[in-house]
Amino acid sequence: MRTIAIIGASLAGLRSAQALRQQGFDGRLVIIGDEVHLPYDRPPLSKDFLLGKVEAVPLADQEDLDALNAEWRLNNRATALLSSGEVALADGTTVEADGVVIATGGVPRTIPNTRVLRTLDDAINLREAFANAQHVGVIGAGFIGAEIASSARALGKDVTVVEALPTPLTRVLGAEMGAACGQLHGDHGSTLITGVNVDSVNVDGGINLADGRRVDADVVVAGIGMRPATDWLAGGPVKVGNGVVCDAGGVTNLKNIVAVGDVANCAGHRAEHWTSATEQAQVATRNLLAGETVATHTNGGYVWSDQYGVRIQFIGRATDDVRLEDGSIEDRKFVATYRDSQNEEDIVGIVAMSNARLFTRLRRNLKQVV
Ligand SMILES: Cc1cc2nc3c(=O)[nH]c(=O)nc-3n(C[C@H](O)[C@H](O)[C@H](O)COP(=O)(O)OP(=O)(O)OC[C@H]3O[C@@H](n4cnc5c(N)ncnc54)[C@H](O)[C@@H]3O)c2cc1C
C-alpha cells in the first residue's frame, strides 16, 4: 500500500495513524478531519473542562504528531467515498488511496432549543452558557448527561435531569445498577425526574414534559445519545447499518477499508467508548496492512464515567443475575458481577463504583469478550 487515507481526525483516527507507523507503514498517510482542531481528548470535556480545571487536552504532543509524517487536511469534510479508494472532500479535491480507515465517530442526537456536548467547540459554548445560568436542565441520564449534571452541580447550579426510562442506564447496566447510578444525582442535590418524555424545550430554556409538568432551566443540554457519522458514505461501496458494517476485526465488505471507533459496527456490536476506539485502531490497521482479518477485537467494551466524585466502571454485558461481590450500594463503593444465565459460574460483566482495584482484579475472570 502506498497511500492510506484516514477519515476522522480524533481518537480512533489518530491511534490508527500511530498504529500504522508502528507496524512499519512508510507510505503516504492523509488524515482528514472536519474539525479545525488537532486531535484532542473528549472525556475531559464533560468533566474537568466544564469545571474550568483544564483546557483542551491534546491526544499527542507536537513531536509525536511530527513523527507521524502525515498530511493533515483539517477543517475539511469527506463528502463521499467515490470508489473503494477515492475520497471526495468538501473543498472540491479528492484523495486517491489504496487503503481507507473510517473513523468518523458520531453525531449527537438533538432536540430544538437544547445544546449538545460532543466537540471541543460544544464544550467551549457550554462552559460560557453555564457561566450565565443558575438552573441547568439535562435531558438524558446516560453517562454523558450524568457527567454534565455532575459538573453543573459542582459549579453550584441548580440541576434537573430528565430521563425517559424509569431507571437511568438500564440498557447498559440493568435496572438495579442503573438505579444505583441514578441515586448519585439526589445524593448531591440534583433533581432526577424519570419515566417521562420531553415534549419540547422553549427558546428561553424551560422544558415541557409530556405529562404537563414544566421544568425551569436557563440552559438545557441534551445527552440523548448519538448516531454514527455515516451520512457521507450513503450510496457508496461500503456497507452501512447502525454504523459501518464490519467484521470482528474492523474489516468492511471491502478488504482495503476498515472502520474504527464509535462509527464501527463490528460483528453486530458498536461500542461508544474510549478504550474500544484505541484498541480497535491497533487491530483494524493490522488487518488493513495484512489484506485480510488476522486479528479480532478483545476489548470487552470497557467504559468508565466520573460523576459526583465517584468513578463508575463497567465491562462486558449486563444480565439479570447481578451479584454484589464487595462493598455496598448505599456507600456508593462496591463491585458487582453479572452472571451468565446458562452458567452462573461465568462472569460476563462487571460494574464498580469507586473500587478500581477489585474491578481490575475481577476483570481477569471475565468470561465473555466483545
Ligand atoms: C463529552 C464526552 C465525554 C466522554 N467521556 C468518556 C468517558 O469518560 N469514558 C469513555 O470510555 N468514553 C467517553 N467518551 C467516549 C469517547 O470519547 C469516544 O468513544 C471516542 O471519542 C470515540 O473516538 P472516535 O475517534 O471513534 O470518534 P470521535 O471522537 O467522535 O471522532 C470522530 C471525528 O471525525 C470527524 N468527522 C466526522 N465526519 C467526518 C467527515 N465526513 N469527514 C471528516 N471528518 C469527520 C468528527 O468531527 C470527529 O472529529 C466521551 C465522549 C464525549 C463526547
Automatic annotation (TrEMBL):
Gene3D superfamilies referenced in this protein's UniProt entry, alphabetically: 3.30.390.30, FAD/NAD(P)-binding domain
Membrane-spanning segments: none
Source domain of life: Bacteria
UniProt keyword terms in alphabetical order: FAD, Flavoprotein, Oxidoreductase
Reductase C-terminal domain sequence ranges: 302-367
Presence of the UniProt keyword Flavoprotein in the record: yes
Residue stretches making up the FAD/NAD(P)-binding domain: 3-281
Cofactor: FAD
Amino-acid biosynthesis is among the record's keywords: no
Family matches, as InterPro entries: FAD-oxidoreductase/Apoptosis, FAD/NAD-bd_sf, FAD/NAD-binding_dom, FAD/NAD-linked_Rdtase_dimer_sf, Reductase_C
Name of this protein: Pyridine nucleotide-disulfide oxidoreductase
